[in-house]
Amino acid sequence: MHPRASALVRVASKVPEVTVFFWVIKVLATTVGETAADLLNFNLGLGLGGTTLAMFAVLAGALGLQYRAPYYIPWRYWLVVVLVSIAGTLITDNLTDSFGVPLEVTTAGFAVALAVVFVWWYRSERTLSIHSITTRRRETFYWAAILFTFALGTAAGDLLAERLGLGYLLSAALFATVIAFIGLFYGLRVFGGVFAFWAAYVLTRPLGASLGDWVAQPSDSGGLNLGTVGPSAVCLLAVVVLVAYLTLSRRDEILDDGFGA
To answer: Which whole-number Å values give the CA distances from 238 to 25, 232, 244, in the listed order?
Structure first.
């Protein structure tokens, strides 16, 4: 057998079709990631570093389930996304709070790391399309990109809202506006589908994070002071309901699992 054959074994598509449900769940998952990371950090009693290690252990288990899935299974996929969202938040919080790395540096660093993943992915596979996640190697590139989009989004959101003083609500409005323009330019065929998807994917992270902070943070910090428990529970319940609906309706399955872009 060719030494690279195991990486090239074709599998059924392991990711969902991009529908309105995809983006709604994505934003909800990012909001959960922001509020749940704070909730776990302050309630587990493990400290920021211990909480991060525990979360990565849980994430590794969820990724194992996802990799073993023979095809796209909604609850497995979205479980990984929610956990990656929490892990991405904790990575940025560790670098900023525990090691004193400036948000400008973490934002730039994660942007470079994400660019490296995309370049490596494209040079290896000649496509970055989510409709082509049909080999183990492409799935690995996909999840690496997802992790760095969440870490980058967290850093960028905190940079604008806190370091540059825009506030959580204004930051959320700014990110929502940019996403809307990306959608407009995609509709006008100025942007291709692959670029539009990944650009929107990166930006929905700080959008959801800014909304989560706006709801949870104290009023003197520009938030609604609702805490982390209630918002986390509400958003997580909404994710569960939507994922259950998609499991039954199968409205987000990719029917064509070929290798095209």
So the answer is: 8, 10, 10
Q: What is the DSSP string of 170-223?
A: HHHHHHHHHHHHHHHHHHTTSS-HHHHHHHHHHHHHHHHHHHHHHHHS-GGGTS
Residues in the chain: 261
Structure tokens given for 246: 């998609």
73-96 per-position pLDDT tens digit: 999 999 999 999 988 888 988 999
Asked if the structure places residue 255 within a domain, the reply is no
- Provide the terminal-to-terminal Cα distance of the chain, rounded to the nearest Å: 28
Distance CA 169, CA 178 (A): 14
Element holding 58 (H helix, E strand): helix 47-68
Beta bridge partners of 135: 10
1 lies in a domain? Answer: no
Distance of CA 155 to the CA centre of its chain: 13
d(CA 224, CA 228): 11
The residue segments making up the domain with residue 34 are: 14-249
Is residue 2 domain-resident?
no
Q: Shortest CA distance to 85 belongs to which of 202, 168, 178?
A: 202
Number of domains in the chain: 1
In a domain, 236, yes or no: yes
Q: What is the pLDDT of residues 218-256, one digit of tens each?
A: 888 888 888 878 888 899 999 999 999 999 999 998 754
Indicate the DSSP class of residue 137. H
Q: Using one digit for the tens of pLDDT, what is the confidence trace for 239-248? A: 999 999 999 9
